[in-house]
Amino acid sequence: MQIKQMLVPEYKYELLCPNPMTPTEITFHNTYNDAPAINERNNVANNSQGTSFHVAVDDKEAIQLIPFNRNAWHAGDGANGRGNRHSIGVEICYSKSGGPRYEQAVRNAIIVIRQLMDQFNIPIERVKTHQERNGKYCPHRMLAEGRVGWFKQQLVSGDYVPPTPIPQPEPQLPSGQYDSSWFTKESGTFTLNTTINLRTAPFSNAPLIATLSKGQQVSYDGYGIELDGHVWIRQPRANGIYGYMATGESANGKRVDYWGSFK
C-alpha cells in the first residue's frame, strides 16, 4: 500500500519531531474519533502542544506526516522512552464509532505496519500498543474488543483472517427503579463538552429523547458503568420518567474518558 507523504513543515520539527531516529520499534494507536487520515495529519501540523505521530491510516489511504528518521511524541513514555524515541507511531482512524470504515482502516493498518516491519527489519516483539508503552487505554477499541492479539497475529501471518465476532447479549432495559447490579445512586450536575444524545434507556440504540449541545447541563440522580460500553447518568424527568445519557466510554468496569464535567 502506498504511504502518501504529506510531511509537516520543517519549521515545526523542533516542536513535533526534534530528534534524529533510527526506527527499531512500532507503536499502534486508535485515534478515538471518527475523522479521516487527512484530518489527523492536519491536526498535528496545526497544533502547538507537541503531540505527533508518523502515519495515519484510514479506510482509503495512509498519510505520513513525520519523517521516519525523526522521532515523534505519541507514546507517552517520556523524553527518552523507547516509544517516543525509537518507534514509528501509527494511528488507526475511525475508531470511536467503529463500523465498516474502521474495519477497513484496520485492514489497511495491517498492510502498512507489515511494510514498515519489512522496511526497517522490525520483529513482531517490538510492535506494541500505546498501552504497552505507558499504560494508557489505547488502542481503545481494539482493547475493548479483545483484538490486540488477533491484530498482531495478522502482522505475523500476512493473511487477513476476520476476527471472531464477540457475542453481544440482548440488552435488558432497566425499569427505572434502583438496582445495585447496574445503578449507583449519586446526585449531581453534568456539563457537556460535546454534543450527546439523551435516550430512554442506557443503550446507544434506545429511542432518542433529545440531542443536547456543548455547555448544556443535566441534573442526575445516579450512574451505571459498563452499560453498552459507556458510563451513563440517569436524569429524573416528569411523571416518574427517566432519561439516560452516556458521559464517556468504559471498559473492564472502569471509565475510559469524560465527555464533560461533574459537580
TrEMBL record:
Keyword terms: Cell wall biogenesis/degradation, Competence, Hydrolase, Sporulation
Protein name per its UniProtKB record: N-acetylmuramoyl-L-alanine amidase
Stated family: Belongs to the N-acetylmuramoyl-L-alanine amidase 2 family.
Catalyzed chemical reaction(s): Hydrolyzes the link between N-acetylmuramoyl residues and L-amino acid residues in certain cell-wall glycopeptides
CDD domains to which the protein is assigned, alphabetical: PGRP
GO MF annotations in UniProt: N-acetylmuramoyl-L-alanine amidase activity
SH3b domain boundaries: 185-254
EC number: 3.5.1.28
